[in-house]
Design goal:
Blueprint lengths: L7 E8 L5 E8 L2 E5 L9 H5 L3 E7 L4 E7 L5 E3 L1 E4 L2 E4 L1 E4 L2 E8 L13 E5 L7 E6 L9 E3 L5 E8 L2 E8 L5 E6 L1 H4 L3 E7 L5 E7 L7 H6 L1 E6 L6 E2 L13 E3 L5 E5 L5 E9 L8 E7 L6 E4 L7 E6 L5 E6 L7 E7 L5 E7 L1 H4 L2 E9 L1
Length: 368
């Protein structure tokens, strides 16, 4: 893809310790990055209601910024969720569309009563407009949401009476397309990642089991699966696809690898996480591989960093990947972008991580 002809936006999210969320767009060559900072952890209704969301478009070379969205006086509030990467918001993006899990501010009530929550589309054109797509089905605020490459369908995981389901809606109308009984798929497992393949018809999901001591039967369950978006034709991918070479000085960190996404040519992008032997810090090291499911071949995608590497995101075109580098107690965190065709790799943005105690989370790519 000619970068002079196609502009792509990568959205990422930074979280910190006060009571506002700021989304910012930073240009990188012909690209722009949107990021957010959340100051403080919203543990109570009162702190959640103090949240402010501002969206900026920043010209990285000129150092200029332009406010394109703010919810400061709007009747909705972005919801928080807690996952492996810490506190975040549930947001997805593709093409020119951005969707977020949010709720009406007046739906927050005292004494811990359940609040209504919905999926909204945000318009990043400085109009401060948003559109409710659908009210979320299920007993909880959602913690995982995914969108197909065409931008026409949105999916999420939720529970009804403690039973897991996968819901898929039409993004334009909010109409429910599929309600999949995930209990039959997950069994004793949980989905560590889920999303659409590049054909916008099939889903991938990685199943894992919590616990340090797994039985042989447990090991047979965990792994990456493919299925149709209606839940039919569930197939487990061969585990051998995700057995990567040992690296000197490292030990295995997890029983499974992270399935990042599928390139348009059908190649899988996978992250394998390891710990340095004798290392007592908090950061693992991640190594990224391109896996061809037809030839069973694997090729490592060489990156300039591995320690503290998180939130790897593959662009829909398959031309670029972006990731964060953040080391605990280090002053600066970084966003990196790598051109998979040219091999060029550079820091797109740096952030004063230590002083603000921030986490940086990449959300996804959209085209301008």
């Amino acid at each position: 893809m000619n970068m002079n002809m196609n502009k792509i936006i990568l959205i990422f999210l930074c979280l910190a310790v006060s009571f506002s969320i700021i989304f910012v767009s930073v240009s990188w060559g012909d690209e722009k990055l949107l990021y957010a900072t959340r100051y403080g952890i919203p543990r109570t209704y009162a702190t959640i209601l103090k949240t402010k969301v501002q969206v900026f478009a920043i010209d990285y070379h000129k150092g200029e910024s332009k406010l394109v969205f703010s919810d400061e006086k709007l009747p909705i509030v972005v919801l928080s969720r807690y996952g492996a990467g810490g506190h975040s918001v549930v947001m997805v993006s593709v093409k020119e569309k951005v969707f977020v899990s949010a709720a009406e501010r007046n739906s927050y009530v005292s004494k811990g009563e359940r609040l209504g929550h919905s999926i909204y589309e945000l318009f990043l054109d400085n109009s401060n407009k948003f559109r409710k797509v659908v009210d979320v089905i299920g007993d909880h605020a959602i913690s995982e949401m995914f969108i197909d490459p065409s931008g026409n369908k949105i999916g999420y995981l939720n529970y009804i009476s403690e039973k897991p389901f996968i819901f898929i809606h039409e993004a334009k109308t909010g109409n429910l397309l599929y309600k999949i009984d995930a209990a039959k798929i997950f069994r004793d497992c949980f989905a560590s990642d889920i999303g659409w393949l590049s054909d916008s018809k099939r889903l991938f999901l990685t199943l894992d089991i919590a616990g340090d001591y797994l039985t042989p039967a447990d090991h047979k369950k965990i792994g990456t699966y493919l299925m149709n978006e209606d839940g039919s034709d569930l197939v487990k991918l061969p585990s051998s696809l995700f057995v990567f070479p040992k690296k000197k000085g490292f030990r295995k960190f997890s029983n499974i690898s992270e399935f990042i996404g599928e390139m348009p040519d059908g190649t899988y992008i996978v992250s394998d996480t390891k710990f340095k032997i004798g290392y007592h810090g908090q950061e693992a090291s991640s190594f990224i591989y391109a896996v061809n499911p037809r030839t069973k071949s694997q090729k490592e995608i060489s990156l300039k960093v591995s320690e503290g590497l998180n939130w790897v995101k593959l662009s829909p075109s398959g031309k670029y990947i972006a990731y964060t580098e953040q080391i605990y107690n280090r002053d600066i965190g970084y966003i990196w972008i790598k051109d998979l065709e040219s091999g060029e790799e550079s820091k797109a943005f740096s952030f004063p991580a230590k002083s603000f105690e921030t986490d940086i989370i990449l959300i996804g790519w959209i085209e301008n």
